[in-house]
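Q: Hi! First time doing this. I have a protein sequence and I read that you can turn it into a structure. Is that right? Here it is:
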Amino acid sequence: MARDYKREYDLYQGRPEQIKNRAERNSARATLTSEGRVRKGDGMDVDHIRPIVKGGSNDRSNMRVKSASDNRSFARTKNAGMK
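A: Yes, that's right. Below is the predicted 3D structure, encoded as structure tokens:
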């Protein structure tokens, strides 16, 4: 079965709170790019020490650079949420 991206966007990614969170993540990446800490294609991610979805912010003190593999492999709960 093919993935229905339009439906996924309509039901989840297009919700106002998800759009806001995505904009904050993009802003964090832009901040660290301007500082020269990350660049396109370097395999690094901007990690929020306290995630945006858990009330974190884009304050510089809440951001760090981690490898993409480290940043995307975190502990999950039984329901696939973040611990």
